[in-house]
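TA notes. Do not distribute before section.
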Amino acid sequence: MIRLRCILLIFFITTGFLTAQPYEHAVGIKAGYSSGVVYKLFLDKNGVLDGQALYNSHGFQFTALYAYQFTPYAKKRLFYFAGVGPHGGNWDEEFALGVALNLGAEFVFRKAPLVMGLEWKPMVNLYKVSGYAIPDIGIAVKVVLN
């Protein structure tokens, strides 16, 4: 009986992580340390491509992130994501390339094609200009396109 309960518990916990995506495409704006335009595309039920064209105190940069997005909740409105990818652009009037991480959460509205999220995206330059931006926290508002 205990084995059956453990198996059922594991089944219900893992099926919460294997949910379908809430939308296919979304575009919007991000405001915070870095501000600009963001675009999100689901590749499969948990794999996400996230493109960002942002401006901050160092200059204008592009970031392309691959993220894993999931929800442990049954209602499927609040999602968490973690990702990594390259970034490049102007960094203190010089061209630089580096890597960025992305951690956050987003809420998908039920009756409106709207997504709101909070994310943290630390960046480290690896080529040409050394530098980093740890406090890159921002709020994103996206419109669902599909």
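Switch to the second chain here.
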Amino acid sequence: DVIVDMTLDAFSAARDESSVGYQDNRPKSELVVLATTDGRTGDRVEPGNDVGEEGRVSSLGYGPEGFVFVYDSFGAETYSQSLWRSTNGRSWEQVGSDDEPNQGPIVGGDDAYFSFRYGRRAGVARSTDGVNWTTVYETDDAGSYFNTLAADEMGVVAIGQHNEGSVAPQLTISKDGRTMDFDYELGLVTVTEDASGDVLTTIDFDVFELDPPDQFQIDEDTGTVTITDTDGTVLMVITEAEAEASSQETEYVEDYSIPTPALAFSPDGTEWFTVTTSGLEVAWAQGAAVGKDAIVIVGESAGGYAAYGSSSETTVILSDGSTAGFATATTLAVPGDFAPEAQQTYVWVGRRR
């Protein structure tokens, strides 16, 4: 029996009407900062009126200049971040620079703060004052990312996962005797003279940066991108239609496999090493602690992740008794109860030699 019969327009109108006033009446969060000296009782302190009425603390750490936290403010139509610092946890000041970390957490070492930095590749940023940050380490490829960061007397450790992921091939546009190649993986743009093969310019392009390089001049009114050399000489002018047509011809290469650990270590926060993870069965890190002579990592094994697809051909028997083959070249790791074996929790200890 038909219970409700209405047009899509009527349904959309009813939905819109029901959401009127949602922004004004929905529950709102409130920042609470407590300071304590004995761990038993705490006093609530107010960082300042500029913190914002609604948001969350995304990063909190302690280092040489005291406590530092990053506050994410959520307005009705805006999102912003602010950096706050305190030497005693009670009196706070808003500080900031163009190099503020936009990814947590923040951890403190003997003489510096550390935080994740995500650009074209995952990395670690270092700051001596909690305000000005410098990237001190980046992964070798775009298939690794970090989710756990710890620091103490022995050094700094960052752990996460490595997966082949999705890699886009070069975006290529040829016109007027010249060819532009955009290598997404390397973050490089080159313009080459077709007749001679000479490379006219090479541009380091970070797609995660808000502003394009100076050699990319974007005209939003005309929908064109002008590429110049370092002296400002125009090399190519690309239209939005040309870029769209070229992107349609590219295909992403996907190879989602069961992840392996990605681990980086630094004894002093400036010189970094990629750590050999032989014997480290942790695929999903849940926590890490750094001591005087050892690092302890806790996480789950890769056994609870089922692999779908393979590089072989799958044969399917159809209803009429005939068979059909489907060749697959993609492996996708998906968590779930249907996994071939249960996840196990591992504790991995690395000691100083």
